[in-house]
Amino acid sequence: MPVDYSRYHPKWRLISRLIRFHRAKGRCEHCGAVHLEPHPITSSKVVLTTAHLDQDVTNNRFWNLKALCQRCHFAHDRQDNARRRKYGKYYLDNQITLC
C-alpha cells in the first residue's frame, strides 16, 4: 500500500531519523535487528522504519513512535492493514467497531 506522505508532519524525515538513529541507536526496538545488517531471523538486509504505535500518522509524540525493522513493522500493522483491505483504505477507527 503506497504511503501518502502529505498526511505526515512536514518534518517527518527528521522525526523518523531521530527515532531510528538517536533514540534506538540503529536497532529495531522490538527484536534488536541492526540497520543495514542481515536480519537474525530472515537473513535479509534490515531497513529500519518508524512506526506509529496508535496508527495515527498525525500523532508524532516520541512515546507514540517506535523504530522497527520491516518485519516487526509489518507485524505491528497487520491488523490495521487487514481492516483497511476489508473496509476500504479511508476507514476511520471510530466509525467501525469489530467484535
Account of the protein in words:
The chain is α+β, with helices and mostly antiparallel strands. It has one domain (5-95). It contains two helices and two strands, in the order αββα. It has helices spanning 12-23, 70-87; strands at 48-52, 65-69. A two-stranded antiparallel sheet has the order 1-2. The longest helix has 18 residues, at 70-87. It starts with 11 loop residues before the first helix and ends in a 12-residue tail after the last helix. 15% of the residues are buried. The mean pLDDT is 86.
Keywords:
single chain, alpha+beta, globular
Total strands: 2
Q: Summarize the main sheet.
A: 2 strands, antiparallel
Helical content (DSSP H or I, runs of 4+) = 25-40%
- Shape call: globular
How far is the N terminus from the C terminus? 25 Å
Itemize the secondary structure elements and their pairings.
Blueprint: H1 12-23, E1 48-52, E2 65-69, H2 70-87
Antiparallel strand pairs: 1-2
